Amino acid sequence: MANVNRPQGAVPVGTLGASGWNGKVGAYLTIDATATHIGDFVKLTGSSGTTEVVDGQDCAGMPIVAKATASDTTLVGAVVGFSPNPSNLNIDGLFKAASTNRIAYVSDDPRTIYEMQEDSVGNNMDADMVGLSTDIITGTGSSTTGISGQMLDSSDTGTAGGQMRILGLSKRVDNAIGTYAKWLVMINTGEGAYNTTTDI
Predict the structure, then answer these.
(1) 113 phi, psi to nearest 5 deg
(2) Global pTM?
């Protein structure tokens, strides 16, 4: 059976050490001109809120994040949801539209394991790539579902210092090695452990 081409960005499925993902998240402010969706990896911008009040919450001092792109090295995690927008409870209120201010809830535990689909452009990932790293492709999120379009870059696998460490194939009955396979990954160059050698 062929794998379904259905990118969902990064979906938390567990943590290192075989524990399940417990749903713990951190709150981050996102205020830039880029639309951000559930499942998007986000990066620190090096700034925080000042006097912003977003969706009724005081965001002074809240760290600011923006949607990550390939090669960004300050990833903090993937968005799992946004604060409710009282003025828009429709589908398009489930994600951050461009040039709007939202509070994003991010799975920021650096030990989080995510499931992500490969893009299968150039080549497919294979079993020998487990343990290597790769980058993400930005993708375009859906304004219909609010879900991310980010995927693993199949043709970038093995790049030294890639954003994602490949842990293995996601073992599901509807998933197999090949085109559009879903893989288990962890952030490889993130800020969650705050162990970089230079300031942001």
Answers:
(1) -100, 130
(2) 0.90
